[in-house]
Amino acid sequence: MSESRSFSQERPIRVFLLDDHEVVRRGLADLLDAEPDIAVVGDAENVEHALARGPALRPDVAVLDVRLPDGDGITVCRELRSRMPGLACLMLTSFDDEEALLDAIMAGASGYVLKQIKGSDLVSAVRTVASGRSMLDPETTARLMRSLRAGPSEQPAVAPELASLSPREREILVLIGDGLTNREIGKKLYLSEKTVKNHISRLLAKLGVQRRVQAAVLASQLEQPEPSERPGH
């Protein structure tokens, strides 16, 4: 599966919408359908309908409301992605809720945006997650990272899973946390893209996570105060 996907007017991004408010669904559909490279292929107003309709429509991106009358969009994200691993989920919420963000990341969501977002920014977010990149609301994510670093309970400086990583894997994990792509990590560390991919597969397995966004959350525990060394020869 290629890491980044491209779309066009001939092959638009297929979007599925989930929101319990009809006005919001219509507004989102009008906004996204106005873009030549995006097509809204269907929508749902609750969890039950989303799980019944979503897979049949084969969307590239699902825009999911977090809070719903019969459940939540995070469960829908997890369920849909278990059936369609290539699906990118963009969580949409009116709540600036750190717990929901962490749950969304752990459910494999590629992005999390607040409903106050400008229309043009939402369109960009859909394109970003469709292409295989993550689009997490920077302000909310930064606050989550801070709360993870200074949790309420006494936490060990480094989670046990992180302690099992080799120095090279830790280095790569920090760069994943900085949002670098495999190619950028390779350039920075003088490694081939394939070698970086292999390192990432191994470190994800050691951390017990499946996606690099989840690894990025754990990377927040790997703050390295000392300046990074220059590569040898």
TrEMBL record:
<dbReference type="InterPro" id="IPR000792">
    <property type="entry name" value="Tscrpt_reg_LuxR_C"/>
</dbReference>
<dbReference type="GO" id="GO:0003677">
    <property type="term" value="F:DNA binding"/>
</dbReference>
<feature type="domain" description="HTH luxR-type">
    <location>
        <begin position="158"/>
        <end position="223"/>
    </location>
</feature>
<feature type="domain" description="Response regulatory">
    <location>
        <begin position="14"/>
        <end position="130"/>
    </location>
</feature>
<dbReference type="InterPro" id="IPR011006">
    <property type="entry name" value="CheY-like_superfamily"/>
</dbReference>
<dbReference type="InterPro" id="IPR058245">
    <property type="entry name" value="NreC/VraR/RcsB-like_REC"/>
</dbReference>
<feature type="modified residue" description="4-aspartylphosphate">
    <location>
        <position position="65"/>
    </location>
</feature>
<keyword id="KW-0597">Phosphoprotein</keyword>
<dbReference type="InterPro" id="IPR016032">
    <property type="entry name" value="Sig_transdc_resp-reg_C-effctor"/>
</dbReference>
<dbReference type="Pfam" id="PF00072">
    <property type="entry name" value="Response_reg"/>
</dbReference>
<keyword id="KW-0805">Transcription regulation</keyword>
<dbReference type="GO" id="GO:0006355">
    <property type="term" value="P:regulation of DNA-templated transcription"/>
</dbReference>
<dbReference type="Pfam" id="PF00196">
    <property type="entry name" value="GerE"/>
</dbReference>
<dbReference type="InterPro" id="IPR001789">
    <property type="entry name" value="Sig_transdc_resp-reg_receiver"/>
</dbReference>
<dbReference type="InterPro" id="IPR039420">
    <property type="entry name" value="WalR-like"/>
</dbReference>
<protein>
    <submittedName>
        <fullName>DNA-binding NarL/FixJ family response regulator</fullName>
    </submittedName>
</protein>
<keyword id="KW-0804">Transcription</keyword>
<keyword id="KW-0238">DNA-binding</keyword>
<dbReference type="GO" id="GO:0000160">
    <property type="term" value="P:phosphorelay signal transduction system"/>
</dbReference>
